[in-house]
Protein backbone atom coordinates (compact mmCIF):
# COMPACT_ATOMS: atom_id res chain seq x y z
CA UNK A 1 0.00 0.00 0.00
CA UNK A 2 2.69 2.39 0.99
CA UNK A 3 4.71 1.48 -2.01
CA UNK A 4 1.74 1.79 -4.16
CA UNK A 5 1.12 5.36 -3.32
CA UNK A 6 4.78 6.07 -3.48
CA UNK A 7 4.90 4.91 -7.03
CA UNK A 8 1.72 6.62 -7.84
CA UNK A 9 3.03 9.95 -6.72
CA UNK A 10 6.28 9.33 -8.46
CA UNK A 11 4.33 8.81 -11.59
CA UNK A 12 2.41 11.94 -11.16
CA UNK A 13 5.50 13.99 -10.75
CA UNK A 14 7.04 12.39 -13.75
CA UNK A 15 3.86 13.18 -15.52
CA UNK A 16 4.13 16.84 -14.67
CA UNK A 17 7.77 17.13 -15.45
CA UNK A 18 7.17 15.41 -18.64
CA UNK A 19 4.34 17.59 -19.69
CA UNK A 20 6.59 20.58 -19.60
CA UNK A 21 9.51 18.86 -20.98
CA UNK A 22 7.71 17.28 -23.73
CA UNK A 23 6.58 20.42 -25.26
CA UNK A 24 9.97 21.92 -24.91
CA UNK A 25 11.64 19.14 -26.72
CA UNK A 26 9.05 18.49 -29.25
CA UNK A 27 10.46 20.72 -31.87
CA UNK A 28 13.58 18.69 -32.21
CA UNK A 29 12.53 16.25 -34.78
CA UNK A 30 9.79 14.05 -33.72
CA UNK A 31 6.48 15.31 -34.77
CA UNK A 32 5.77 11.75 -35.52
CA UNK A 33 6.28 10.86 -32.00
CA UNK A 34 4.66 13.84 -30.56
CA UNK A 35 1.27 13.67 -32.10
CA UNK A 36 -0.41 10.41 -31.60
CA UNK A 37 2.16 9.05 -29.28
CA UNK A 38 2.12 11.79 -26.82
CA UNK A 39 -0.52 10.19 -24.76
CA UNK A 40 1.52 7.19 -24.17
CA UNK A 41 4.58 9.12 -23.49
CA UNK A 42 2.88 10.67 -20.63
CA UNK A 43 1.92 7.50 -18.99
CA UNK A 44 5.30 6.14 -18.98
CA UNK A 45 6.84 9.40 -18.26
CA UNK A 46 8.53 9.75 -21.56
CA UNK A 47 12.07 9.66 -22.67
CA UNK A 48 14.91 11.09 -20.74
CA UNK A 49 13.24 13.07 -18.08
CA UNK A 50 16.52 14.70 -17.88
CA UNK A 51 16.93 15.04 -21.53
CA UNK A 52 19.65 16.57 -23.43
CA UNK A 53 20.79 19.71 -21.81
CA UNK A 54 23.44 20.29 -24.36
CA UNK A 55 23.35 17.80 -27.11
CA UNK A 56 26.47 16.91 -28.86
CA UNK A 57 27.88 18.55 -31.85
CA UNK A 58 27.79 17.61 -35.43
CA UNK A 59 25.96 14.40 -35.80
CA UNK A 60 24.79 13.05 -38.99
CA UNK A 61 21.34 11.74 -39.37
CA UNK A 62 20.76 8.13 -38.71
CA UNK A 63 23.62 7.91 -41.08
CA UNK A 64 23.87 6.74 -44.61
CA UNK A 65 27.24 5.07 -45.10
CA UNK A 66 28.21 1.51 -45.69
CA UNK A 67 26.14 -1.39 -44.67
CA UNK A 68 22.47 -0.74 -44.61
CA UNK A 69 22.20 1.33 -41.51
CA UNK A 70 19.01 3.11 -40.82
CA UNK A 71 18.05 3.55 -44.38
CA UNK A 72 15.27 1.36 -45.51
CA UNK A 73 12.90 2.92 -43.13
CA UNK A 74 13.12 6.65 -43.04
CA UNK A 75 9.94 6.65 -41.13
CA UNK A 76 9.98 4.64 -38.01
CA UNK A 77 6.81 2.87 -38.77
CA UNK A 78 6.99 1.98 -42.38
CA UNK A 79 3.97 -0.08 -43.11
CA UNK A 80 1.43 1.61 -41.03
CA UNK A 81 1.48 5.34 -41.26
CA UNK A 82 -0.20 6.91 -38.36
CA UNK A 83 -3.42 5.08 -38.51
CA UNK A 84 -3.64 4.14 -34.95
CA UNK A 85 -5.54 6.38 -32.69
CA UNK A 86 -5.57 9.72 -34.22
CA UNK A 87 -8.50 10.04 -36.50
CA UNK A 88 -11.55 9.80 -34.47
CA UNK A 89 -11.33 11.04 -31.00
CA UNK A 90 -10.79 7.88 -29.13
CA UNK A 91 -12.95 7.29 -26.21
CA UNK A 92 -10.05 8.98 -24.71
CA UNK A 93 -9.86 8.82 -21.18
CA UNK A 94 -6.78 10.64 -22.02
CA UNK A 95 -4.16 8.07 -21.95
CA UNK A 96 -5.59 6.57 -18.97
CA UNK A 97 -4.72 8.71 -16.12
CA UNK A 98 -1.29 7.73 -15.12
CA UNK A 99 -2.78 5.08 -13.05
CA UNK A 100 -4.93 7.45 -11.21
CA UNK A 101 -3.49 7.21 -7.83
CA UNK A 102 -6.68 7.63 -6.01
CA UNK A 103 -9.07 5.72 -8.14
CA UNK A 104 -7.97 2.52 -6.63
CA UNK A 105 -8.63 1.58 -3.17
CA UNK A 106 -9.62 4.37 -0.95
CA UNK A 107 -11.92 6.83 -2.49
CA UNK A 108 -14.70 5.96 -4.79
CA UNK A 109 -13.53 6.55 -8.26
CA UNK A 110 -13.19 10.25 -8.69
CA UNK A 111 -14.41 9.91 -12.19
CA UNK A 112 -11.10 10.71 -13.67
CA UNK A 113 -10.33 12.79 -16.57
CA UNK A 114 -13.11 11.72 -18.78
CA UNK A 115 -12.04 14.47 -21.03
CA UNK A 116 -14.87 15.86 -22.93
CA UNK A 117 -16.97 17.81 -20.60
CA UNK A 118 -19.07 14.78 -21.07
CA UNK A 119 -22.52 16.11 -21.14
CA UNK A 120 -24.95 13.72 -19.67
CA UNK A 121 -25.37 10.64 -21.69
CA UNK A 122 -28.21 9.78 -23.83
CA UNK A 123 -31.70 9.94 -22.71
CA UNK A 124 -32.66 8.61 -19.39
CA UNK A 125 -31.16 10.73 -16.78
CA UNK A 126 -30.19 8.47 -13.99
CA UNK A 127 -33.06 7.87 -11.74
CA UNK A 128 -32.64 9.39 -8.40
CA UNK A 129 -33.01 6.29 -6.42
CA UNK A 130 -30.92 3.36 -7.22
CA UNK A 131 -32.95 0.30 -7.02
CA UNK A 132 -32.19 -1.97 -4.20
CA UNK A 133 -29.15 -4.02 -4.86
CA UNK A 134 -30.07 -7.24 -6.42
CA UNK A 135 -28.32 -9.82 -8.36
CA UNK A 136 -29.75 -8.83 -11.63
CA UNK A 137 -31.00 -5.48 -12.58
CA UNK A 138 -34.47 -4.94 -11.38
CA UNK A 139 -36.62 -6.41 -13.98
CA UNK A 140 -39.85 -8.06 -13.31
CA UNK A 141 -41.74 -6.44 -10.61
CA UNK A 142 -42.95 -8.95 -8.12
CA UNK A 143 -45.88 -10.81 -9.32
CA UNK A 144 -48.95 -9.92 -7.54
CA UNK A 145 -52.38 -11.08 -7.96
CA UNK A 146 -54.73 -9.61 -10.36
CA UNK A 147 -55.33 -6.07 -11.29
CA UNK A 148 -52.01 -4.74 -10.53
CA UNK A 149 -52.29 -1.10 -10.92
CA UNK A 150 -50.21 -1.13 -14.04
CA UNK A 151 -46.96 -0.82 -12.20
CA UNK A 152 -45.14 1.97 -13.83
CA UNK A 153 -42.09 0.46 -15.44
CA UNK A 154 -39.15 0.85 -13.14
CA UNK A 155 -37.03 3.65 -14.39
CA UNK A 156 -34.04 2.51 -16.41
CA UNK A 157 -31.31 2.28 -13.84
CA UNK A 158 -28.27 2.53 -16.07
CA UNK A 159 -26.58 5.56 -17.43
CA UNK A 160 -26.66 4.07 -20.89
CA UNK A 161 -26.97 0.84 -22.74
CA UNK A 162 -23.21 0.50 -23.03
CA UNK A 163 -23.03 0.76 -19.29
CA UNK A 164 -25.67 -1.89 -18.91
CA UNK A 165 -23.64 -4.23 -21.07
CA UNK A 166 -20.61 -3.63 -18.92
CA UNK A 167 -22.71 -4.16 -15.81
CA UNK A 168 -23.43 -7.73 -16.82
CA UNK A 169 -19.78 -8.39 -17.55
CA UNK A 170 -18.77 -7.21 -14.10
CA UNK A 171 -21.51 -9.22 -12.44
CA UNK A 172 -20.46 -12.36 -14.26
CA UNK A 173 -16.85 -11.86 -13.32
CA UNK A 174 -17.22 -10.78 -9.73
CA UNK A 175 -18.06 -14.20 -8.28
CA UNK A 176 -14.81 -15.56 -9.72
CA UNK A 177 -12.82 -13.26 -7.49
CA UNK A 178 -12.47 -15.11 -4.26
CA UNK A 179 -9.75 -12.94 -2.85
CA UNK A 180 -10.28 -9.21 -2.79
CA UNK A 181 -8.19 -7.93 0.07
CA UNK A 182 -8.62 -4.31 -0.88
CA UNK A 183 -12.37 -4.50 -1.29
CA UNK A 184 -12.30 -3.35 -4.84
CA UNK A 185 -14.53 -5.95 -6.43
CA UNK A 186 -16.80 -5.49 -3.49
CA UNK A 187 -17.68 -2.07 -4.84
CA UNK A 188 -18.71 -3.59 -8.13
CA UNK A 189 -22.39 -3.79 -7.33
CA UNK A 190 -25.45 -1.95 -8.43
CA UNK A 191 -26.14 -0.15 -11.66
CA UNK A 192 -23.74 2.74 -11.17
CA UNK A 193 -20.90 1.06 -12.94
CA UNK A 194 -19.03 4.30 -13.44
CA UNK A 195 -18.66 4.52 -9.69
CA UNK A 196 -17.12 1.09 -9.30
CA UNK A 197 -13.61 1.26 -7.99
CA UNK A 198 -11.14 1.29 -10.82
CA UNK A 199 -13.66 1.99 -13.54
CA UNK A 200 -13.23 4.97 -15.79
CA UNK A 201 -16.12 5.98 -17.99
CA UNK A 202 -16.12 8.24 -20.99
CA UNK A 203 -18.36 9.15 -23.83
CA UNK A 204 -18.35 6.51 -26.52
CA UNK A 205 -17.35 8.22 -29.73
CA UNK A 206 -19.66 6.16 -31.88
CA UNK A 207 -22.65 5.54 -29.71
CA UNK A 208 -22.43 8.95 -28.08
CA UNK A 209 -23.25 7.56 -24.71
CA UNK A 210 -21.37 6.79 -21.54
CA UNK A 211 -19.27 3.65 -21.68
CA UNK A 212 -16.62 1.88 -19.64
CA UNK A 213 -13.46 3.16 -21.21
CA UNK A 214 -10.89 1.94 -18.77
CA UNK A 215 -10.26 -0.30 -15.84
CA UNK A 216 -7.45 0.25 -13.43
CA UNK A 217 -7.05 -2.54 -10.93
CA UNK A 218 -3.35 -2.14 -10.42
CA UNK A 219 -2.37 -3.64 -7.12
CA UNK A 220 -5.82 -5.04 -6.38
CA UNK A 221 -4.30 -8.46 -5.59
CA UNK A 222 -7.36 -10.26 -6.88
CA UNK A 223 -7.17 -14.01 -6.59
CA UNK A 224 -9.49 -16.72 -7.82
CA UNK A 225 -10.77 -20.05 -6.75
CA UNK A 226 -8.27 -22.84 -7.08
CA UNK A 227 -5.67 -20.29 -8.01
CA UNK A 228 -7.52 -19.64 -11.24
CA UNK A 229 -8.63 -16.27 -12.41
CA UNK A 230 -9.11 -16.05 -16.16
CA UNK A 231 -9.14 -12.92 -18.23
CA UNK A 232 -11.43 -14.63 -20.67
CA UNK A 233 -14.96 -13.40 -20.44
CA UNK A 234 -13.89 -10.26 -18.70
CA UNK A 235 -11.22 -8.29 -20.49
CA UNK A 236 -12.53 -9.29 -23.89
CA UNK A 237 -16.14 -8.63 -23.02
CA UNK A 238 -15.65 -5.06 -21.91
CA UNK A 239 -15.97 -4.00 -25.49
CA UNK A 240 -15.39 -0.30 -25.08
CA UNK A 241 -12.17 -0.52 -23.12
CA UNK A 242 -9.34 1.73 -24.07
CA UNK A 243 -7.07 0.59 -21.29
CA UNK A 244 -6.78 -2.29 -18.90
CA UNK A 245 -4.28 -1.95 -16.09
CA UNK A 246 -4.02 -5.05 -13.96
CA UNK A 247 -0.58 -4.94 -12.39
CA UNK A 248 -0.14 -7.20 -9.36
CA UNK A 249 -3.12 -9.50 -9.46
CA UNK A 250 -3.33 -13.25 -9.86
CA UNK A 251 -4.76 -13.57 -13.32
CA UNK A 252 -3.97 -16.92 -14.87
CA UNK A 253 -4.24 -18.54 -18.26
CA UNK A 254 -3.66 -16.53 -21.36
CA UNK A 255 -4.77 -13.38 -23.03
CA UNK A 256 -8.25 -13.71 -24.56
CA UNK A 257 -8.34 -14.01 -28.30
CA UNK A 258 -10.98 -11.40 -28.59
CA UNK A 259 -8.88 -8.54 -27.34
CA UNK A 260 -8.33 -8.00 -31.01
CA UNK A 261 -11.93 -6.90 -31.22
CA UNK A 262 -11.61 -4.09 -28.74
CA UNK A 263 -11.58 -1.21 -31.13
CA UNK A 264 -10.22 1.44 -28.87
CA UNK A 265 -7.85 -0.69 -26.94
CA UNK A 266 -4.49 0.90 -26.66
CA UNK A 267 -2.99 0.00 -23.32
CA UNK A 268 -2.60 -3.44 -21.85
CA UNK A 269 -0.80 -3.88 -18.59
CA UNK A 270 -0.81 -7.46 -17.31
CA UNK A 271 2.38 -7.15 -15.34
CA UNK A 272 3.01 -9.20 -12.24
CA UNK A 273 0.31 -11.79 -12.72
CA UNK A 274 0.53 -15.54 -13.18
CA UNK A 275 0.08 -15.78 -16.90
CA UNK A 276 1.73 -18.71 -18.60
CA UNK A 277 2.41 -20.15 -21.99
CA UNK A 278 4.19 -18.73 -24.97
CA UNK A 279 4.11 -15.15 -26.01
CA UNK A 280 0.41 -14.25 -26.12
CA UNK A 281 -0.01 -13.91 -29.83
CA UNK A 282 -3.55 -12.82 -29.19
CA UNK A 283 -2.33 -9.32 -28.59
CA UNK A 284 -0.82 -9.11 -32.03
CA UNK A 285 -4.22 -8.60 -33.54
CA UNK A 286 -4.99 -5.72 -31.23
CA UNK A 287 -3.65 -3.32 -33.74
CA UNK A 288 -4.37 -0.15 -31.83
CA UNK A 289 -2.22 -1.18 -28.94
CA UNK A 290 0.47 1.31 -28.04
CA UNK A 291 1.50 0.03 -24.65
CA UNK A 292 2.14 -3.59 -23.84
CA UNK A 293 3.41 -4.59 -20.45
CA UNK A 294 3.81 -8.32 -19.81
CA UNK A 295 6.64 -8.16 -17.32
CA UNK A 296 6.72 -10.41 -14.27
CA UNK A 297 4.69 -13.32 -15.58
CA UNK A 298 5.63 -16.84 -16.63
CA UNK A 299 5.66 -16.43 -20.37
CA UNK A 300 8.24 -18.69 -21.95
CA UNK A 301 9.63 -19.82 -25.26
CA UNK A 302 10.18 -17.39 -28.05
CA UNK A 303 8.92 -13.99 -28.88
CA UNK A 304 7.37 -13.91 -32.31
CA UNK A 305 8.92 -11.50 -34.79
CA UNK A 306 5.45 -10.07 -35.29
CA UNK A 307 5.81 -8.37 -31.97
CA UNK A 308 8.19 -5.92 -33.50
CA UNK A 309 5.60 -4.98 -36.06
CA UNK A 310 3.21 -3.79 -33.41
CA UNK A 311 2.90 -0.07 -33.46
CA UNK A 312 3.64 0.26 -29.77
CA UNK A 313 5.62 2.80 -27.84
CA UNK A 314 6.37 0.59 -24.92
CA UNK A 315 7.17 -3.08 -24.82
CA UNK A 316 7.97 -4.48 -21.41
CA UNK A 317 8.83 -8.16 -21.53
CA UNK A 318 11.21 -8.34 -18.63
CA UNK A 319 11.17 -10.95 -15.89
CA UNK A 320 9.57 -13.80 -17.79
CA UNK A 321 11.12 -17.02 -19.02
CA UNK A 322 11.64 -16.24 -22.67
CA UNK A 323 14.52 -18.42 -23.72
CA UNK A 324 15.13 -18.08 -27.43
CA UNK A 325 16.86 -15.62 -29.69
CA UNK A 326 15.62 -12.09 -29.90
CA UNK A 327 14.03 -11.97 -33.35
CA UNK A 328 16.20 -10.42 -36.03
CA UNK A 329 13.71 -7.74 -36.92
CA UNK A 330 14.01 -6.02 -33.54
CA UNK A 331 14.92 -2.77 -35.23
CA UNK A 332 11.67 -2.53 -37.09
CA UNK A 333 9.79 -1.81 -33.89
CA UNK A 334 8.86 1.81 -33.30
CA UNK A 335 8.92 1.33 -29.53
CA UNK A 336 10.69 3.89 -27.39
CA UNK A 337 11.16 1.61 -24.42
CA UNK A 338 12.16 -2.03 -24.58
CA UNK A 339 12.81 -4.24 -21.63
CA UNK A 340 14.06 -7.72 -22.36
CA UNK A 341 15.75 -7.88 -19.00
CA UNK A 342 15.87 -10.91 -16.73
CA UNK A 343 14.73 -13.57 -19.14
CA UNK A 344 16.86 -16.26 -20.73
CA UNK A 345 17.22 -14.77 -24.16
CA UNK A 346 20.10 -16.27 -26.12
CA UNK A 347 22.06 -15.38 -29.21
CA UNK A 348 23.31 -12.00 -30.32
CA UNK A 349 21.77 -8.57 -30.23
CA UNK A 350 20.23 -8.23 -33.68
CA UNK A 351 22.06 -5.91 -36.04
CA UNK A 352 18.79 -4.44 -37.12
CA UNK A 353 18.72 -2.53 -33.86
CA UNK A 354 20.32 0.38 -35.69
CA UNK A 355 17.14 0.88 -37.66
CA UNK A 356 15.44 2.02 -34.50
CA UNK A 357 17.71 5.03 -34.40
CA UNK A 358 14.92 7.56 -34.59
CA UNK A 359 12.70 6.02 -31.97
CA UNK A 360 14.57 4.00 -29.41
CA UNK A 361 15.17 5.79 -26.12
CA UNK A 362 15.86 3.08 -23.61
CA UNK A 363 16.65 -0.58 -23.98
CA UNK A 364 17.40 -3.09 -21.26
CA UNK A 365 18.95 -6.41 -22.24
CA UNK A 366 20.42 -7.10 -18.84
CA UNK A 367 20.28 -10.45 -17.11
CA UNK A 368 19.97 -12.78 -20.09
CA UNK A 369 22.23 -15.24 -21.86
CA UNK A 370 23.08 -13.15 -24.86
CA UNK A 371 26.24 -14.13 -26.68
CA UNK A 372 28.44 -12.86 -29.47
CA UNK A 373 29.98 -9.47 -30.12
CA UNK A 374 28.14 -6.19 -30.12
CA UNK A 375 27.01 -5.10 -33.58
CA UNK A 376 28.47 -1.74 -34.51
CA UNK A 377 24.96 -0.69 -35.58
CA UNK A 378 24.19 0.08 -31.97
CA UNK A 379 26.09 3.28 -32.63
CA UNK A 380 23.23 4.54 -34.74
CA UNK A 381 20.99 4.90 -31.72
CA UNK A 382 21.47 8.60 -31.40
CA UNK A 383 18.25 9.11 -29.45
CA UNK A 384 19.04 6.50 -26.85
CA UNK A 385 19.62 7.55 -23.28
CA UNK A 386 19.86 4.09 -21.75
CA UNK A 387 21.61 1.01 -23.06
CA UNK A 388 22.16 -1.83 -20.64
CA UNK A 389 23.52 -5.24 -21.59
CA UNK A 390 24.95 -6.10 -18.20
CA UNK A 391 25.08 -9.67 -16.92
CA UNK A 392 25.10 -11.55 -20.19
CA UNK A 393 27.68 -13.66 -22.00
CA UNK A 394 28.66 -11.03 -24.53
CA UNK A 395 32.21 -10.63 -25.71
CA UNK A 396 34.47 -8.63 -28.02
CA UNK A 397 35.66 -5.04 -27.78
CA UNK A 398 33.45 -1.98 -27.47
CA UNK A 399 32.62 -0.91 -31.02
CA UNK A 400 34.01 2.55 -31.73
CA UNK A 401 30.59 3.42 -33.04
CA UNK A 402 29.50 3.80 -29.43
CA UNK A 403 31.07 7.24 -29.58
CA UNK A 404 28.04 8.19 -31.70
CA UNK A 405 25.54 7.53 -28.92
CA UNK A 406 24.90 11.21 -28.71
CA UNK A 407 22.38 11.23 -25.90
CA UNK A 408 23.47 8.27 -23.91
CA UNK A 409 23.34 8.74 -20.15
CA UNK A 410 23.39 5.20 -18.83
CA UNK A 411 25.70 2.78 -20.51
CA UNK A 412 26.11 -0.51 -18.75
CA UNK A 413 28.27 -3.32 -20.10
CA UNK A 414 29.15 -4.82 -16.73
CA UNK A 415 29.55 -8.54 -16.07
CA UNK A 416 30.20 -9.89 -19.52
CA UNK A 417 33.33 -11.03 -21.32
CA UNK A 418 34.22 -7.84 -23.09
CA UNK A 419 37.89 -7.11 -23.58
CA UNK A 420 40.41 -4.78 -25.13
CA UNK A 421 41.10 -1.09 -24.68
CA UNK A 422 38.20 1.21 -23.88
CA UNK A 423 37.77 3.60 -26.82
CA UNK A 424 38.59 7.07 -25.56
CA UNK A 425 35.93 8.72 -27.67
CA UNK A 426 33.22 6.89 -25.82
CA UNK A 427 34.40 8.49 -22.61
CA UNK A 428 33.96 11.93 -24.10
CA UNK A 429 30.24 11.53 -24.71
CA UNK A 430 28.89 14.58 -23.02
CA UNK A 431 25.74 13.16 -21.48
CA UNK A 432 27.29 10.04 -20.11
CA UNK A 433 26.52 10.01 -16.42
CA UNK A 434 26.73 6.37 -15.47
CA UNK A 435 29.09 4.12 -17.38
CA UNK A 436 29.89 0.69 -16.05
CA UNK A 437 32.42 -1.72 -17.48
CA UNK A 438 32.87 -3.64 -14.25
CA UNK A 439 33.65 -7.32 -14.28
CA UNK A 440 34.95 -7.80 -17.81
CA UNK A 441 38.40 -8.15 -19.34
CA UNK A 442 39.18 -4.62 -20.43
CA UNK A 443 42.88 -3.88 -20.55
CA UNK A 444 43.37 -0.16 -21.02
CA UNK A 445 41.80 3.15 -20.21
CA UNK A 446 43.13 6.45 -21.56
CA UNK A 447 43.11 9.94 -20.08
CA UNK A 448 39.52 10.78 -21.03
CA UNK A 449 38.21 7.67 -19.41
CA UNK A 450 40.33 8.31 -16.36
CA UNK A 451 38.65 11.66 -15.98
CA UNK A 452 35.32 9.88 -15.83
CA UNK A 453 36.69 7.42 -13.33
CA UNK A 454 37.83 10.25 -11.17
CA UNK A 455 34.32 11.64 -11.13
CA UNK A 456 33.07 8.19 -10.25
CA UNK A 457 30.96 8.08 -13.37
CA UNK A 458 32.93 5.21 -14.86
CA UNK A 459 33.30 1.94 -13.02
CA UNK A 460 36.12 -0.35 -14.19
CA UNK A 461 36.39 -2.64 -11.20
CA UNK A 462 37.24 -6.29 -11.83
CA UNK A 463 38.90 -5.98 -15.20
CA UNK A 464 42.45 -6.54 -16.35
CA UNK A 465 43.75 -2.99 -16.26
CA UNK A 466 47.35 -2.88 -15.12
CA UNK A 467 47.97 -0.63 -12.20
CA UNK A 468 44.31 -0.14 -11.31
CA UNK A 469 43.04 -1.29 -7.97
CA UNK A 470 40.30 -3.89 -7.70
CA UNK A 471 41.15 -5.81 -10.82
CA UNK A 472 40.89 -9.49 -11.65
CA UNK A 473 43.89 -11.59 -10.80
CA UNK A 474 46.68 -12.11 -13.23
CA UNK A 475 45.75 -15.76 -13.45
CA UNK A 476 42.19 -14.96 -14.35
CA UNK A 477 43.27 -12.52 -17.01
CA UNK A 478 45.89 -14.85 -18.42
CA UNK A 479 43.47 -17.69 -18.60
CA UNK A 480 41.03 -15.55 -20.50
CA UNK A 481 43.54 -14.17 -22.97
CA UNK A 482 45.28 -17.47 -23.55
CA UNK A 483 42.52 -18.37 -25.96
CA UNK A 484 42.39 -16.56 -29.27
CA UNK A 485 39.49 -14.15 -29.43
CA UNK A 486 38.00 -12.62 -32.49
CA UNK A 487 34.71 -11.17 -33.49
CA UNK A 488 33.23 -12.11 -36.83
CA UNK A 489 32.71 -8.43 -37.47
CA UNK A 490 36.21 -7.40 -36.41
CA UNK A 491 36.61 -4.74 -39.10
CA UNK A 492 33.42 -3.02 -38.22
CA UNK A 493 34.55 -2.58 -34.67
CA UNK A 494 36.42 0.57 -35.56
CA UNK A 495 33.82 2.02 -37.86
CA UNK A 496 32.40 5.31 -36.64
CA UNK A 497 29.11 6.17 -38.33
CA UNK A 498 28.90 9.80 -37.29
CA UNK A 499 30.94 12.90 -37.68
CA UNK A 500 31.69 13.85 -34.16
CA UNK A 501 35.24 12.99 -33.78
CA UNK A 502 37.95 14.27 -31.66
CA UNK A 503 39.55 16.73 -33.87
CA UNK A 504 42.61 17.77 -32.04
CA UNK A 505 41.19 21.21 -31.42
CA UNK A 506 37.73 20.08 -30.48
CA UNK A 507 36.45 21.69 -27.40
CA UNK A 508 36.14 18.97 -24.84
CA UNK A 509 32.63 18.67 -23.64
CA UNK A 510 32.17 19.13 -19.96
CA UNK A 511 30.51 16.22 -18.29
CA UNK A 512 27.79 17.19 -16.09
CA UNK A 513 26.36 15.35 -13.22
CA UNK A 514 25.37 11.79 -12.77
CA UNK A 515 22.63 10.43 -14.90
CA UNK A 516 19.19 10.72 -13.49
CA UNK A 517 17.36 7.50 -12.89
CA UNK A 518 16.15 6.29 -16.22
CA UNK A 519 12.55 5.37 -16.48
CA UNK A 520 12.73 1.90 -17.78
CA UNK A 521 14.60 0.69 -14.73
CA UNK A 522 11.35 1.16 -12.91
CA UNK A 523 10.04 -1.76 -14.91
CA UNK A 524 12.41 -4.04 -13.06
CA UNK A 525 10.30 -3.65 -9.99
CA UNK A 526 7.27 -5.87 -9.77
CA UNK A 527 4.73 -3.37 -8.80
CA UNK A 528 3.51 -0.60 -10.95
CA UNK A 529 5.96 2.18 -11.56
C1 LIG B 1 -2.21 -12.75 -5.35
O1 LIG B 1 -0.91 -12.29 -5.64
C2 LIG B 1 -0.30 -11.54 -4.62
C3 LIG B 1 1.06 -11.11 -5.11
O2 LIG B 1 0.99 -10.49 -6.34
C4 LIG B 1 -0.22 -12.36 -3.36
O3 LIG B 1 0.32 -11.56 -2.33
C5 LIG B 1 -1.59 -12.85 -2.97
O4 LIG B 1 -1.50 -13.66 -1.87
C6 LIG B 1 -2.23 -13.61 -4.11
N1 LIG B 1 -3.56 -14.00 -3.73
C7 LIG B 1 -4.07 -15.16 -4.11
C8 LIG B 1 -5.42 -15.47 -3.61
O5 LIG B 1 -3.49 -15.94 -4.84
C1 LIG C 1 -8.39 1.09 -34.29
O1 LIG C 1 -8.97 2.34 -34.09
C2 LIG C 1 -9.67 2.84 -35.21
C3 LIG C 1 -10.12 4.25 -34.91
O2 LIG C 1 -10.27 4.49 -33.58
C4 LIG C 1 -10.82 1.90 -35.54
O3 LIG C 1 -11.53 2.38 -36.64
C5 LIG C 1 -10.28 0.53 -35.81
O4 LIG C 1 -11.31 -0.37 -36.03
C6 LIG C 1 -9.44 0.05 -34.65
N1 LIG C 1 -8.79 -1.20 -34.95
C7 LIG C 1 -9.21 -2.36 -34.44
C8 LIG C 1 -8.42 -3.57 -34.79
O5 LIG C 1 -10.15 -2.45 -33.69
C1 LIG D 1 24.97 3.92 -11.74
O1 LIG D 1 23.87 3.05 -11.71
C2 LIG D 1 23.97 1.99 -10.78
C3 LIG D 1 22.74 1.17 -10.90
O2 LIG D 1 22.57 0.71 -12.19
C4 LIG D 1 24.12 2.54 -9.38
O3 LIG D 1 24.29 1.49 -8.47
C5 LIG D 1 25.30 3.47 -9.33
O4 LIG D 1 25.38 4.06 -8.07
C6 LIG D 1 25.18 4.55 -10.38
N1 LIG D 1 26.37 5.35 -10.38
C7 LIG D 1 26.34 6.67 -10.39
C8 LIG D 1 27.62 7.37 -10.40
O5 LIG D 1 25.28 7.29 -10.42
Which terms summarize this structure?
Leucine-rich repeat, LRR (right-handed beta-alpha superhelix); alpha/beta; 529 residues; binds 2-acetamido-2-deoxy-beta-D-glucopyranose; 12-stranded mixed beta sheet; disordered N terminus; leucine-rich repeat; elongated; 23 strands
What can be said about this structure in brief?
The protein is of the alpha/beta class.
Query: Major sheet: order of its strands?
Result: 2-3-5-7-9-11-13-15-17-19-21-23
End-to-end separation in angstroms reads: 13 Å
Query: Mind telling me which CATH architecture of the domain at 341-523 this is?
Result: Alpha-Beta Horseshoe
**Count of DSSP E strands?**
23
Whole-number radius of gyration? 26 Å
Structural class: alpha/beta
Secondary-structure element pattern, one letter each: HHHEEEEEEEEEEEEEEEEEEEEHEEHEH
Number of helices: 6
Estimate what percentage of residues fall within beta strands.
Answer: 5-15%
Could you say which small molecules are bound to this protein?
2-acetamido-2-deoxy-beta-D-glucopyranose
Low-confidence stretches: 1-59, 63-69, 71-144, 501-506
Shape type: elongated
Fold-level CATH name of the domain at 341-523: Leucine-rich repeat, LRR (right-handed beta-alpha superhelix)
Under CATH, the homologous superfamily of the domain at 341-523 reads Ribonuclease Inhibitor
- Average pLDDT taken over every residue: 76
CATH class (first level) name of the domain at 341-523 = Alpha Beta
Quick one: biggest sheet? 12 strands, mixed
- State the helical fraction: 10-25%
Amino acid sequence: MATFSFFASLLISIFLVHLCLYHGVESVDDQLISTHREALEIIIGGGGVNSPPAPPPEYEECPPPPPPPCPPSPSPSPPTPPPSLPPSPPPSPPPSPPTPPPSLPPSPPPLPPSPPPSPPPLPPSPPPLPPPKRKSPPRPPPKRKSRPPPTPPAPYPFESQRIELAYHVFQNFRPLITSDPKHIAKSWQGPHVCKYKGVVCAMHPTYKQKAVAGLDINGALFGGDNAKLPLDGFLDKLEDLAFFHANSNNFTGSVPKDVSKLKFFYELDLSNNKLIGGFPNEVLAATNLTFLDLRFNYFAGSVTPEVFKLDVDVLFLNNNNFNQKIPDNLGSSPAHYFTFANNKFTGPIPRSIGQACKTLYEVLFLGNKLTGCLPYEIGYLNQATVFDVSSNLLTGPIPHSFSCLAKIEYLNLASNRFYGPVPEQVCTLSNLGNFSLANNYFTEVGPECRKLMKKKLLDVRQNCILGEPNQKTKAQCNAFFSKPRKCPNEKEMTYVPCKRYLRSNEKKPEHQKQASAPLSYGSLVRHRL
